[in-house]
């Protein structure tokens, strides 16, 4: 696997990532979107390079992004900033890998962003949503964001109403509003039956709201699907077949 750093300025902030390239391959690239972090390290140190290598071993390029407000990039956390970062990377990849078909794979909050961005960008050929919710409930989101700020794994802007503003805007990106707009482009929904953070019922609702072509892939796992390499391999292989890449 060949790797090269990416560093873009998005809305005045530096957003870093890594492009992973196969030595020989197809004109396909998957952009990988992480979720709300549990630890402060950059994504390159959290196992996402393992996921990228699974793509490159199969002849597919992969791009990692340290989304804004997390370690490895500048700025402050919000779903709107994550959407901007993703769109900026997609534009960069369109130039860097001209002619490549672009796909998104997002985990948890990254899945929320992937569905929203793809619904509004017809250049995205398909989406893999991993452990993403169907809707965004303030009562569930507030303690997660508060803890992430307290643990230093995301950054706020220092204003007292930061969490309120983040939660208020988040409802605009809820997958229930956007997943139906993906068709006729495919979506694969991967979820753990033992997920306590985002119950598997959310995956069923997401699948029901999506239009064909769609696929539901369930695992005997919790929220962090990437914690099990065998499950990740299954997700990658199923996605490449389902998307006919």
Classify the helix fraction into a percent range: 25-40%
What's the Cα radius of gyration?
16 Å
Q: Could you report the average pLDDT, rounded to the nearest whole number? A: 97
The description of the largest β-sheet is:
8 strands, mixed
User: Quick one: how many beta strands?
Assistant: 8
Q: DSSP strand (E) fraction?
A: 15-25%
Span between termini: 19 Å
What are its keywords?
8 strands; single chain; 245 residues; alpha/beta; 8 helices; globular
What does this structure look like?
With 245 residues, this protein is α/β, with parallel strands linked by helices. The chain is built from 8 helices and 8 strands; from the N terminus they run βββαβαβαβαααβαβα. It has helices spanning 48-56, 79-96, 109-119, 138-151, 162-170, 175-178, 200-209, 229-242; strands at residues 2-10, 13-21, 28-33, 61-65, 101-107, 124-130, 187-192, 214-219. Strands 1-2-4-3-5-6-7-8 form an 8-stranded mixed beta sheet, sandwiched between helices. A hairpin with a 2-residue loop joins strand 1 (2-10) and strand 2. 42% of the residues are buried. The mean pLDDT is 97.
Overview in brief:
With 245 residues, this protein is an alpha/beta fold. The chain has eight helices and eight strands; from the N terminus they run βββαβαβαβαααβαβα. The chain starts with a strand and ends with a helix.
Write the layout of secondary structure elements.
Layout: E1 2-10, E2 13-21, E3 28-33, H1 48-56, E4 61-65, H2 79-96, E5 101-107, H3 109-119, E6 124-130, H4 138-151, H5 162-170, H6 175-178, E7 187-192, H7 200-209, E8 214-219, H8 229-242
Helix pairs in contact: 1-8, 2-3, 4-5
């Amino acid at each position: 696997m060949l790797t090269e750093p990416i560093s873009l300025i998005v809305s005045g902030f530096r957003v870093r990532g890594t492009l992973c390239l196969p030595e020989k391959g197809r004109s396909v690239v998957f952009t990988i979107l992480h979720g709300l972090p549990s630890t402060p390290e950059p994504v390159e140190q959290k196992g996402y390079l393992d996921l990228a290598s699974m793509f490159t071993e199969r002849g597919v390029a992969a791009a990692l992004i340290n989304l804004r407000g997390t370690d490895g990039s500048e700025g402050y956390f919000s779903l709107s900033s994550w959407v901007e970062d993703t769109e900026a990377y997609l534009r960069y990849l369109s130039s860097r890998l001209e002619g490549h078909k672009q796909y998104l794979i997002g985990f948890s909050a990254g899945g929320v962003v992937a569905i929203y961005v793809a619904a509004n960008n017809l250049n995205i050929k398909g989406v893999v949503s991993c452990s993403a919710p169907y809707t965004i409930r303030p009562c569930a989101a507030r303690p997660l964001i508060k803890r992430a700020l307290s643990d230093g794994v995301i950054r706020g802007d220092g204003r007292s109403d930061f969490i309120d503003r983040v939660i208020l805007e988040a409802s605009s990106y809820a997958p229930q509003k956007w997943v139906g707009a993906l068709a006729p482009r495919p979506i694969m929904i991967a979820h753990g039956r033992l997920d306590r953070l985002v119950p598997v019922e959310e995956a069923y609702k997401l699948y029901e709201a999506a239009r064909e072509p769609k696929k539901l892939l369930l695992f005997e796992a919790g929220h962090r699907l990437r914690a099990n390499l065998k499950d990740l391999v299954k997700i990658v292989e199923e996605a490449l077949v389902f998307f006919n890449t």
